[in-house]
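Allow me, if you will, to draw on your knowledge of protein folds for a short while. I have a record of one protein: its chain in single-letter code and its fold written as discrete structure tokens. The full record is reproduced below for your convenience:
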Amino acid sequence: MSAAWQSGWWTPARRIDSPNFGPRPAGTAITLAVVHSISLPPGQYGGDEIERLFTNRLDWAAHPYFGLIRGATVSAHFVIRRDGELLQFVSCDDRAWHAGQSCWQGRDNCNDWSIGIELEGLEGGPFETPQYEMLGGLLGGLCKAYPLADVAGHEHVAPGRKHDPGAGFDWQRGARLARRAGAVLRWPAGPGDPQP
């Protein structure tokens, strides 16, 4: 997939600017991609609720679940929809608010030095072939622009607190497609795999 970067924005993605971001600490190398899963309401796909959440426009009264996350100000760099459509909410040069309290290989505050990638899906549930294909291509593109070295799940950087993407995500498949796109990265073997 041929792509160009423009100030941290990847041109194949549909750009939707989120206000939920900040600067990375000066001199920080971006070496980690964190894979998440999200669906709003849980288990429902195809609507614009994720976009609304990441742009602070979600109607908290529209569904009972939304009351549980009322007031959340969150974002990720990318969302990959079930059909493989790629959305980008924050420039990769900036810090998105996706990992929260987190640690990877002894380094805290993963948001400072990671790219957040949300897959539209239910925690623990299966993901679609177009999502794996887009994830592989995206990681290939990221590796051309940033010194990525590792991929981890939210469940790996916040064990016990987060469980996504969960057992339904095929880590080996993701790694294989990323390698095909030129992304040579360290991956967990599976959900809950201990940190190296």
